[in-house]
Amino acid sequence: MIDHTTIELARIVLGACQAKGLLVATAESCTGGLVAAALTAVAGSSDVVDRGFVTYSNAAKAEMLGVPPALIGEHGAVSELVARAMAEGAIRHSKAGLSVAITGIAGPGGGSAEKPVGLVHFAASLADGRSLHIERRFGDVGRDVVRTRSVTQALDLLLHLAKDHAVVG
Questions:
Q1: Alpha carbon separation from 112 to 101, 105, 116, 140, 156 (Å, rounded)
Q2: Domains of the chain and any CATH numbers
Q3: DSSP letter assigned to residue 166
Q4: Where does the CinA C-terminal domain lie (predicted)?
Q5: Which residue, among 131, 104, 132, 123, has the nearest Cα to 26 in the 3D structure?
Q6: With contact defined as beta carbons under 8 Å apart, do 120 and 83 qualify?
Q7: Which helix (H) or strand (E) holds 133?
Q8: Disulfide-capable partner of 75 in 4, 40, 79, 169 (CB 3.0 to 4.6 Å)?
């Protein structure tokens, strides 16, 4: 599922993070660790990747990342606020200065009219508090396609924030 193009993008992300002195953490739900897998497929990634959290269940989001259960209850696990809380939690629960979070509905089931299959929320955060959020509606294109496109989107977000980060000292 991790192709050459994705690994090349991961290599670019790692280079940008290394140039800025950033460690990275991932917080993944619907991708189940695929972003961390793409990053760690690159030799030397241990210089940049601190850790990955696979928080597939709501309980895991709360226990491992500190996402408030009430936030999940009010907005649903697949929401901007939960994605942002996951990204912030990954920073708080790691040594990373940059994180990315993914929560979505890969399918084939689990969707609704309000939150259809293919809906994915992404958030990336820097330890200084800056963050980005993107919502994607990939459509009911198949579980593998949603997950693969989500990995690419997550890597793009990491790259964007890494490039925006000022080098300290």
A1: 22, 10, 5, 12, 27
A2: 4-164 (3.90.950.20)
A3: P
A4: 8-160
A5: 123
A6: no
A7: strand 131-137
A8: 79
